[in-house]
Amino acid sequence: MSKLKIAIQGVLGSFHHQVALRNFGEDIEILDFTTFEPVARTVSNEDADFAVMAIENSIAGAILPNYDLIDRYGLSIRDEYYLPIGHQFMALPGQTIQDITEVRSHPMALLQCKAFFAQHPHIKLKEDTDTASVARDIASGNWKGVAAIASSIAADIYGMEILAPDIQTVKSNFTRFIILQKESVKPAKDANKASIKVTIQNQKGGLAKLLTLISENGIDLSKIQSIPVIEKPWEYAFFIDLVFEDHTVFTQTIEEIRSSFGEVKIFGEYISRK
User: Fold this and answer.
1) β-strand 220-228 against 264-270: which pairing, if any?
2) Fewer CB atoms inside 10 Å of the end CB: C or N, the chain?
């Protein structure tokens, strides 16, 4: 029996890799990419069974381009996963923090550790494409004086020494990941959350009317993001996460939204993991 193929952004040891392991187990084949677009494309082309994709962080906020990728490649949300993020400051063994002159990591990781580096102004911050890939490159290149911000798993995989653990500014730091597939997903039996897209024309009070409709039906709007509709100036698509107790009420609400606003796209109905 062939292994499940899971597409991720980042290399082995990355946070995406951790989520893939926790959701699908160890007996999988990881297809790793440096950016998110080929992750979405690989699932859309059926070269991977599923994808793991970060969508928002409790400190840095939403990753807006990923909403567009899910929509543009016609992907469906199968599930979500909240991963507590622990950023470890690591380098080749035998060094101290004072030996480090440069740290490289993903921009979001650097942002989440601003307070730590304010205490160490001698360290130059440099953006890179991924967290774990920097640890890999430091190990393979034997780079002295350069550190990475990555997971403890990455430190184990690439033989790095953690010089300072959990350097993130806010210790209760979580990233929400979504599990994606190409085919439409049958709603989970106990589904109580849905991700949808609603396109609203340039009409006065349109968004307020939408929010009122959702609220009056007793559905919790847990997240909303707006993205301009490129081919239709002054029209906006709203990506919305809804949490509900009664699936029948959710279905009725979707029909009311369609009746009042037109296009509604459901990306997935699943169990809230928060």
Assistant:
1) unpaired
2) N
> 89-112, pLDDT tens digit by residue?
999 999 999 999 999 999 989 999
Angle at 162 between CA 118 and CA 13, to 5 degrees: 105
Q: Do 81 and 117 belong together in one domain? A: no
Q: Is residue 251 part of a domain?
A: yes
Q: What confidence tier does 133 reach under pLDDT thresholds 50, 70, 90? A: very high
Q: Are the C-beta atoms of residues 132 and 10 closer than 8 Å to each other?
A: yes
Active-site option among 42, 131, 175, 253:
175
Structure tokens at 128: 């890179």
What is the average pLDDT score of the chain? 94
Residue with tokens 């849905």: 194
41 lies in the same domain as 177 = yes
The reply to whether 188 falls in a domain is no
In this structure, what CATH number is given to the domain that contains residue 218? 3.30.70.260
Catalytic-residue membership of 177: yes
Asked if residue 74 and residue 11 are part of one domain, the reply reads yes
Q: What is the DSSP letter of 76?
A: E
Domain that holds residue 230: 193-270
Give this prediction's pTM.
Answer: 0.90
In a domain, 186, yes or no: no
Under the banding of pLDDT at 50, 70 and 90, the label for residue 8 is: very high
Segment 8-13 mean pLDDT: 94
Instruction: Say if CB 34 and CB 130 are below 8 A apart.
Output: yes
Q: Which tokens belong to 233?
A: 């100036």
The DSSP result for 34-45, as a single string, is SSHHHHHHHHHT
Domain CATH for 77: 3.40.190.10
Helix (H) or strand (E) holding 94: none
Structural domain count, the chain: 3
